[in-house]
Design a protein that fits this description.
Blueprint (H helix, E strand, L loop, with lengths): L21 E19 L5 E21 L4 E4 L11 H13 L4 E7 L10 H16 L6 H9 L5 H6 L3 E4 L4 E4 L6 E6 L6 H6 L25 H7 L1 H11 L4 E3 L6 E5 L2 H8 L7 E8 L3 H6 L1
Parallel strand pairs: 3-4
Antiparallel strand pairs: 1-2, 2-4, 2-5, 2-10, 5-6, 7-9, 7-10, 8-9
Helix pairs in contact: 1-2, 2-3, 6-7
Length: 297
């Protein structure tokens, strides 16, 4: 899963993973091909409309089952205590929901940047739920896993279902869609964007009119968070401007990663070869059935 180059931090080395572990299991990145914020609820959550597609690039997870019931993380992604890691939280949530007494040590070959808008933490949580559901022989439905995952983050259900989707509500009301499977260059300007800060910014547009499912290739739609992120994070603004000179660029989620679609892998790689050295990038294909869904089949 994944092509091109990436300079994202790696949590564990593949050589650290014991032979008894199950894996590697993919935890793919996602793109928000557009993101419209249509309102704000009384509880503070934002109503939105967004178009999700998966990428053939992401983290890789390994799971080594334990008889003592403990849930542990091997190594720690930078700045994330093990107790707060979404893989650990997902595994413990699954134990609590089912009464499962089996434990696990999770190994995360981490490739997606934190605060990049690629859904790395949510994808890790979804892969943990789906794979442990199989390894622990729990036999929960995908819908049940998605309902559990929603308590971990609004993006977790789309990763559990593993289909490109038009999402509404807070992101949990999903309608499967079939999208062109383009090649994308994803550019990381090496900044971590706080989603909470963006959604609490007084300048954020919160009244975009609701729309039907658009065709992203027509150029209809936008990312309502882009203006705020541009103002607060000049590095993201610079990345958008640089990539826009090569192809129409957008920000995914609340950033900081930005992306552009290309007709071929070769065309994307040409632009990737010109990326400034202080940024990182990767080239991947957009896919409508996630690598996790394909692996589980």
């Amino acid at each position: 899963m994944g092509v091109g180059r990436s300079h994202c931090p790696v949590a564990v080395s593949i050589t650290d993973v014991p032979a008894s572990a199950s894996g590697p299991w993919p935890a793919p990145a996602k793109l928000n091909l557009l993101l419209h914020i249509t309102g704000q609820r009384a509880d503070g959550y934002h109503e939105l409309q967004t178009l999700f597609q998966f990428l053939s690039f992401g983290d890789w997870l390994y799971f080594d089952l334990r008889k003592d019931g403990e849930v542990q993380l091997a190594g720690e992604p930078a700045g994330v205590p093990a107790a707060l890691d979404l893989c650990v939280r997902a595994a413990k949530l699954l134990q609590q929901a089912t009464g499962c007494s089996t434990g696990v040590t999770v190994y995360n070959d981490k490739r997606l940047p934190a605060g990049g808008g690629l859904g790395g933490g949510s994808s890790d949580a979804a892969t943990t739920l789906a794979v442990l559901n199989r390894l622990w022989e729990l036999d929960l439905s995908r819908a049940a896993l998605a309902e559990l995952g929603l308590s971990l983050g609004a993006d977790v259900p789309v990763f559990v279902h593993g289909e490109a989707a038009w999402a509404e509500g807070v992101g949990e009301i999903l309608t499967p869609v079939t999208l062109p499977e383009s090649w994308f260059l994803v550019l990381n300007p090496q900044v971590s964007v706080s989603t909470a800060d963006i959604f609490s910014d007084s300048g954020l547009t919160r009244d975009t009119p609701r729309t039907r499912i658009p065709d992203p290739l027509t150029g209809v739609g936008k990312n309502d968070c882009e203006e705020v992120v541009r103002r607060r994070y000049p590095e993201v603004a610079a990345a958008l401007d640089w990539l826009n000179a090569c192809a129409p660029a957008r920000m995914t989620g609340t950033g900081g990663c930005v992306f552009a679609a290309f007709e071929s892998e070769a065309a994307a790689n040409v632009v990737a070869g010109q990326v400034p050295v202080n940024w990182s990038s990767f080239v991947a294909r957009g896919v409508n059935l996630s690598p996790l869904r394909q692996a589980l089949v």
